[in-house]
## 1
Amino acid sequence: VKAGDVMKPTEESNLLVCIGPSPSSEDVIRAGARMAAEQGVPWFAVTVEIDGFWTPEERDRISRHLSLAESLGAQVMCLEGRNVAEELVLFVNDRNPRRVVLGQTALGRGPLFRRKAIVTELMRRTTGVEIVLVPQPEASSGRVPGTQIGTTLSSGGGGKFLLAGAIMISAIGAALLIHSLALGESNTIMMLLLGVLLSSVFCGRLSGLAASVFAVLAFNFFFTEPRFTLVVDDSRYLVTFPIMLVVAFVTSELTTRLQRTAEIARERQERTERLYRNSNDLIVARSYQEICETSLESLERLLGAPVGAWLKGEFLGPKQIDENTFQIGDANFDDEVEREARDWAYRSVRPGGCGGLSHTESRGFYLPLQLGEMCFGVLGVWCGGTSLSTAKRVLLTAVSAQLALALDRERLSLAQEEARVAIERERVRANLLRSISHDFRTPLAAITGASSTLLADRKLVGEKKLLLQDVYSDALWLSELVENVLSLTRLHSGDFVLEGKEEVVEDLVITAINRAEKTRNGRRIDISLPEELLVARVDAGLFEQLILNLVNNALDFSEDATPVKVIVRTRGGQLELKVRDFGPGFSSDGLSKALDLFYTEKARNDSRRGLGLGLAISRTIVEAHGGRIQLENHPEGGAVATVTIPRAGPRDNGRIDG
Amino acid sequence: MGDSFNAPKPLILIVEDDRPIMNFMKAALRDQHYRIADVGAGRDALAYAGAYTPDVVLLDLGLPDVDGIDVIKDLRSWSDVPIIVVSARGNERSKVEALDHGADDYLTKPFGAGELLARIRVALRHSSSSPNTSLSDSKGVVSIGPLEFDAERRKVRHDGRPVQLTPIEFRLLRELVFHAGKVLTHKHLIAKAWGPKQKVESHNLRVFMATLRRKLEDDPSRPTLIVTEVGVGYRLLDEWPATAIDSYDPT
């Protein structure tokens, strides 16, 4: 299949828009884009590149049209060949778009060429395709190569004509030798035709045609009676000459066409190969620099022009690139005009510069390196004033897509690496915290025990007793803190799985409250338990700690004379636990942040107390049980913490993220 | 203490590798005139216990040389000496394991002198002859605070009022009363109340215990008789008033 080897579409496309150099092609493109959007289908914009046919202005317009189509979301393709209708028919039959959108120029009313209209050809030779014609007010201004063959002759240049002349003279010499040896007229003619063939092969089409005429004239001049004149005696030669001319013409034409086809095939092959090699090289490339350099090398070889890539650091993470400009070839990319064109292309995420949608006065063409929502930077090529050929433009698009993909892959892998390092760092920190806390336990137990032993001495009175009491209660407080830290590191260790058992809730509540009362002398804690026995699937130790934390928090933030209320009940099949105090309540800031780690409000009695762990751990414990915790201020004053936990236990085994 | 004036004071063997904790335990026990021996490793503990037959062993579960559980197994193979294990909080599983392997009681760090001494008293009481002789009167009725437990007539009174118990509840209470002051694991209580072969979910036991508590406590939210040891089991408080055995209250 001829079409589509420049760029394989990733998905079946359903709408095809044909683009030419006519200024009204813009309307066609917009109409196509609209239809594609309405139907929600991807679309192609296709143009046919005909070697040497388009004038520089037309080529410039085509390039702009392609840029427009690209910025409207089309996949841009360039077909190569000698005949627009032929290539389109092949393409349509290959891809089966449901709809083909064409401009009115395709009707073929142009006066310059007699040709079959593209539309007629499409209708005749394809099936199941809707053809949509977009009216164009100035249809006649479009110049469309229809079905004509060979509208252009490859200009051979003086050298080629000289070579052809030399070949023909040699052929005539050889023919004269054959003639003098009397080997027969047919051999003479064959030798001359061989000359024509060789001229076509080596010197191109125009030389071939000239050689054909020359061969007939030479035959007449050198070999027919009377020789060395252009006069013919034998009237049979009047048949020979035209036949010979036709044979020479056809030989020449077929040869050049064959050669051209082979050449196109070779070029395509080379391009495909280079794109393929580029994508292979990109797979091994391991840094932004390597990726850009690899792509630019391929691109420079494909386009034969200076190329450059400009990456924007902020999209690749803050610290990963210092040098973000890569250039190959000698071109003045640093010019102010170029810079502006690049900036525009980057900011608007549309093709800019020479042949782009804006800043056309610049001498480089710039494509945004786009992937989905992200734009990594700009890929540029130096075209020195005239737009790139469509084929090259499509190549540029292909390379830019490869480059953007590779950059994105690199970005993701760097981000992943960073995340891995962060997790590792966090793990080390947690392990450190855990082992330190663990080591605190024993000395704290010794301090608590020793001070309690000393306090048992009845002879101890006054200030010494007070100091010792402080030692004792602070050691107890520190022990609670250490236990909280240990629970926290355990809950966040990543491999923690909650081991819930059926527990009688009131047992846990009572035990926790007894523990709280033990360290808070004289504080009143009112407990309200339901009549029925509440059984819930919880981790007993953690649940006890949850209640202890909530109660301790309530005690810390309320006056000694006020009680703390603990209410346990079922609600909607769930276990509900409320802890209420009669203190000042949460500040508005605290209501939203008190459950966060290390958030603290100044406690009533002692500013030192509280690392902001208690409530954060409570939340972690509740979440591990698949429940919720909610803080609010009671309308009659005081803070209320409400915990709801499903009685059946957490659904997903109580795994905790992070 | 029922010891006669001339009898030697009980010998307490402390197995603990942390010097400060050892020092404080020794100080607390010496105040009560117990005789004390201390070792820092499990192997030394076994050697000492073999040679001197202590009355109570205080065993830290986190020993440097051997697993505390192995020390318990070894001791239990030839001795009935009461063993009180000492361990950090959060190690409920190792406590239960120690208790199921024959340890009598446990202490959770941090603990105060009062708690330590109460555990020692309970252990000494249970080591002397049959269960709860010290608590039962001449007719075999055990009184603990407001509770009167008559095992022979299967009668239970609370503040003089009779309490109706189901057979399982009665068996649970009997076990707690016979081991008053000691912690009894879930496994132990299930085996005694339902029979060793029965497969009973531990939350069934918890429900029975909660019901029992409601029948016996004046205020179930302030238990003075049956205390839950979270993650381990239950304990019937046997020193009256109950607060006396709690950790030392420093104010």
Note: Chain B has eight helices and twelve strands.
## 2
Amino acid sequence: MTARISVRREISLRTREGLYGYGFILPWIIGFCLFTALPLVQTFLYSLNNVSVTATSISLNFVEWANYTRALFTDPNFIALLIGYAIETLVSVPIVLIFAMIVAIFLNQKFRLKGLFRVIFFLPIVITSGPVIRELSEQGAASAPGVADNPAIAEFLAQLSPSLRSPIEYVLTSFILILWFSGVQILIYLASLQKIDRSIYDAAAIDGASGWETFWKIVLPSLSTVTVVNAIYTIITLSHFSENRVIRYIYAQTYDVQGGIGYASAMSFIYFGVMIVLLAVIGFALLRWARKSSV
Amino acid sequence: MTHQVFDTRQAEAAAARARREQGRTHLLNHPIATGIRGFLFGNRAHRGLVFTLTLYALLIAIGFVYLQPLLFMFVTSIKSPADLLNPMVQWVPTELFMGNYERAFRVLDYPNTLLASIMISVVPSIIQTGIASLVGYGLARYRFRGKRLIFLLLLATFIIPPQNTIIPQMLTYRDLNLLGNPLALILPALLGQGFRSAIFILIFYQTFISLPKVLEESARLDGATDLRIFLTIAVPAAIPAYIVSLIFSTVWYWNETFLTVIFLEGGVTTLPMQLSSFTQAYENLYPPGTVSITERLNEAVKMSGTFLNILPLLVMYFVLQRWFVESVEMTGITGE
């Protein structure tokens, strides 16, 4: 008898806990439905229609996949922008990751004026906004100093094939911009570096490991998981950045007579798809490496 | 006694002999050489000079890369029109010219847009932080079905690009007559869907899950309600997470232009919004046909505008820099 009561109480306690849990996250669930799920479905519907918006109403004209085929096969700009975006992301992510890791390792050392350098290195977190970046790159302040306008380099670039030239040119002209996207990643690396137990370094030093070996055998493997996190973060910030050319094109098309909301929605979904593919490719590659190195 | 003295002498002589021998065979092991080597390349106790110098050189180089655009912005913004045209003047202007700032100040309508920016970034941030802590606490402290699904959807809200959801939202706001109203940003924040809300929810999840449960359990035995436990025990314990979230949220809302332009256009004008239409605003205020050539829009004025735009953030950053720099360590965000 008592056993049965306690079982029932146990169950009711668990239900109670569950209900309270849902209570705490209820605002989020409502918000997810209203502000994420519903608009996402609506945007998908728009992408299958010709949408015309008047002052009072929205009229839909079902066109199946016409918006998608137009974006993929007819529009001369969209595919070029999309390929550019994919290449730029694939080039930027390793640069950001390597750079952030190096800076974090530096900042993890003991040296004088560390506070000052930390303040400088995290500055980009604060000021990286679309309009500021646009003004700066318009003035040419975003390229690697003295490199992009160097005649020898221009000569060298001119001899490369276009498929190779555009990524290199991109790196040269927006090198500082790429580095400016590393602020949060440095923070994350630094935090996980500080979680490494100091005694492991001492043990390695006693065993005669050099700094170089310590990096490859201890530091890098312990940063592997967080590298995946950083890679995802980098891809998403780069893809959502309001100065991203694909986003600007989609935005311009939304209000264009030729384009319209339906067409812009279709492009948004194609762009989203490409982003997912990039996330999957980079994510899986890094995850495999992380598994291998952490075992 | 003498015996002992003799002994030490003998030992000293032997040691000196050994040193001499060693010095002959391994010049590099001489104490002075070891000292110099240790000084340059480091030994077990401390880093060497070469390493330290390399470290500083790299740090300064990277720091310069980061500061160069800011420096460029500032130097250009105080150049007079004559300095701008003079190819000899690169980094050091001949005079401190404040005219650009005067004009940028007026073009940006600085007091009004600054106030709007502060409101548009601080109010949603406070709401977003509060809701994120509530959701993060719910996820960290309660067991319920579908938690994995919630995490998956949380990640989805972070990944889905804003332009995939923004058009229907905008049309709904238009029907509700909320376009241009700050509520258009506040409502999503109130329901946990603010700008990058997922990150803040995860920060709070990490924070609460790493706090000990004991205090909350004893409060529950004393008959406190769940909301009371959250407000009186969990919230005070998570103050650093609140501060960090508030700071980052404010900065990100401040810098966000994609959402604000679409939702607030025509109603509220923030600083970054005004900066994106700087050229147009300038020409409205100083029509190109009517002003002299030195008063035309030039890059010095643009850079003044840009600098005025980031100035409040810079001030905030230097006041609160400790919280930025140590934020991740304080909240332990880097978890799984």
Note: Residues 110-141 of chain B form the longest helix (32 residues).
## 3
Amino acid sequence: MPSEPFSFDLLSANLAIGAALVAIGMIGFVARRNLIVMFLSAEMMLQGVALTLVAFGRYHGNWTGQVLTIMILAVAACEAAIALVLVLVLYGRRHSLDASLWQDIRDPGQPPTLDRPEEAEPIEPGTDLGPEAYPHLTPAGIEPPHASTPWIERRD
Amino acid sequence: MTLSQEAATTLSLIAAGGFGTWLLLPHSHGLARAKPARILGFLLTLVATAFLLRGASAPGSGLSTLFFYIFAMAAVLSAVLTVTSISPIHSALWFASVVLATSGLFLMTGAQFLAAATVIVYAGAIIVTFLFVVMLASVSGHALYDRSSRMPARATLASVLLLWTLLYAIQSSAGTPATTVANPTPPLRPASSLASVPTTPADREAAARVLAAAVPARSHLPRYDQQPLPGVPPRHVASLGATLFTDHLIAVQLAAVLLFIALVAGASISRPKPLIRPVDRRKHDDAHPVSTPATANAR
């Protein structure tokens, strides 16, 4: 508890947990392809840094670590706002959360990362696809008139 | 290059945890891993985390040691499951678990205000993440980009090396004079403010003038020169607020400016452009035929 002394063993344990959170968050940010999961991984790295700062502040007996953590909270709020807006804008352009769809903005000369969907495990018909899965129905009746060109292009 | 036994043990533990995380990560081409492989990965990560934290001996009662272990294991394992869950909804839920465990660690470290503030702030963030997942996620099961990950082995290897470097630095600093002099650190008091640092009389007088202007006599904030009464626990939030609004006043104002700029930036880039109707597109093309460089120069 707070009134007990804070030994170096406890400090190093807290630092180890913070370092582990940062490393695991790096795995998630580098390896995952969903933009939302990448955002969550970045937030998790910030949690690891906050843990490190609080432990250092407690060890040195001043409030600076906690003040810096409050600053991290403010910066994380800004980051969350802008990251989620960017996710929305990117989704509006490509209609997918896949980060690999944006590999054309990398440095020139990089080999492209290609999906191989034929190797992927097919989704069995019996699996639960979530609440947004609809059954396939046989088309019936007259097809209603609809625009030949979909309205997906936006003004500059 | 010779490794000490401790460093070699740490490296092997981290490598075991990294291998377990790699087993849990989605395959790079979306192949489904067998369930025994996933269970083995989770168990490897669990055992590696438990052994890495074995040296953490919390002083005091056994109960606080137990709670520390619970929070630490929960934080690391939830973090692994956050980055390895296929469904983004599950990722968000595990991230909530990471935040709760981290708040518990904050509480054990003597940061009660931050524990509460983190839970409050990140609860909102996680709800917004849920909204985004529900709004944007693929409508027919898990998309291929959720079931596959990019270069999982190389990403895990890089993170294993990073974590080993960090833990090596932490372990090798044990026993140095910097880690033994101030041991054990007294609990946080209001006088832990930086304003109590000046030693010369002139500096102390200047600090007192700044403090008198920042914390007037009618204020309820604890003053840096005020010693806590014996038997009365120090006022945590008031002390933190006193430090924040005296020592770090400019940082607070900069944070406010940063939040405002982020608000403006978010609002300005999120505004959707209006859609182009196909009728308008045809009218526009008729009125402005594609101009060649020659006609553009002539105009």
Note: Chain B is about 65% helix and 0% strand.
## 4
Amino acid sequence: VASVDVTQTARRPFTGRRVHLGDLILQGVAGLAALGATLLVALIVWKVVDGARPAISKFGLPFLWHVVWNPVVGREAFGAGSFLFGTAITSFFALVLATPLAMGIALFLSELAPRVVRGPVTALVETLAAVPSVVVGLWGILVLGPALRTHIEGFLHSAFGFIPLFGPASPSGASLFTAVIVLTIMILPIVSSISRELFLGVPPELKEGALALGATRWEMIRGVVFPYARGGIAAALILGLGRAMGEAIAVTQVIGGGVFIHWSLFSSGDTLASKIAAEYQGATSNLDVASLIYLGVILLVLSLLANLTAQYIVRKVARKHGVTRGGRA
Amino acid sequence: MSAQGLTAPVRRDDRLKRRKAVNRVMELLAWLAALIAVAILGIVVFSVGRRGWGELNLNLLTKHPIPFSFTNAPQGLSNAFAGTLVIVALSTVMALPVGILVAIYLNEFARASVRNGVGVALDVLAGVPAIVVGIFVYGLLVAGGGGQSGIKAAFALAILMLPFVARTTIEVLALVPNSLREASLGLGIPQWRTTLSIVLPRAIGGILTGTVLAVARVAGETAPLLFTSSLVGPQTSWNPTHALQTVPLAIFELSESPDPNDHARAWAAAFVLLLFILFASLTARWLATRSARKIAGR
């Protein structure tokens, strides 16, 4: 089919696929853009590490666990310990809260929802992702924080005060706990919309098989949908974690600030991102700025790790499912 | 066999009841989770709307703020709205052509291995926290000399837009039927003309949708602006070679102020921003359903 006239193609090998100048130009320009986008990632890493160099050479790796932030000129001492702790604890608990909710939303949208509400609710969940972080933060500090303080924090402290996580209620509503709730809201849409797509990708014959064997809908979900989507869910959660770690503005607004490690969720604190956003304009010396950028380096490394891990899992899962599908066909 | 037959049905019935109850509970929890998500959106929009509505007037858009003074003269945030318009427009102009070119290269020219490699890079770029992009542009353009400016802020936002625009454009280009390309190439039209005047016009609706969503996303972005366009005066300026105030940054600063009047303006600005973003997202969604049908030619 490909060659109607073999002899002619053989005789004129160059006219079969003429190279146009326009082709070269478009391919060159477009290729340059693609190359630029790729190099941009490397440039970002290089430039951010470069900006942190004074702090890296002065403090080295112990910067990671030192709990101190003293910008007073002459007695400068900087360390990321408390901010790493704040980032870890807020994103961890945000993920803990968001995971069951996101799974529920995704299952609702993919398996349970009547056709009439499926579209609108999907749109609404995706709209939640579009709310700017600064607006969530404004709401968080002026409405959510005070409400949590009066209604939730006191209750949790009096009921579960023996657990160190639930200390005395915060004085103003600005606390790690408020940051956790705000982060939960911000990562909920991304985790649930990825999970929803994963659940929709489960082959219907597997689901129907389980139902035909007499499984209830929940047993079918537990036995077929979750195992099939397991890898993808892990990737979605890691992406959510990356998002939570990198969120700066909303967290800065609600977390209260401070350089200390408290186990209580109701005390104030700082994350890596919120420390950078809060202190940046007030930075006094070059070393101060470099140390803040060092925090940015840590944040960049963590988010790159999270992102690449998630991508690796997604590609592995896609390959596995592709193979099984190919094998069946 | 018969002895089992006498007792088993009763037990099986019990087990079935329990299994059905568990199923019921789990389904209920999933409904509840969806309800919570919708309720959160409702509560956020409602609280912003309730507090912002009263402060919403023309002064907000036409008057500039008057800092450090106990005046009762009407104040607004005209400087922030002007700055956001200029910066977001500039960043769109920067990111859109590059994003489309990247997508054209990956979808129309590149080999599979190159496509995968650049795809990874795009996803990584999309995962870089906005505040780190701010640090990057600060280190690259601001710290070295010249200081802050609207153009540099637009560049930072364009970096955030780029992977988004490229990804959506790739998806749209992939929807264009191959038969169109083959028909065009078969008529002897070179590939560059096929791409630019057959494939691209077919995909323009989808690209527009992606652009609207990207604009809605970066219009509310605050973190990169802290480093690139935050040292500003109260005067309204349209000149992007100087630092410009922006709506998200104004909300951020006003929300940290102890003055309730500042909070009121923050709510009003947040309401306007939220309305714009909700409107843009819904428009994009509407465009998407329309263009998807058109692209596939059905």
Note: The longest helix of chain A spans residues 286-328.
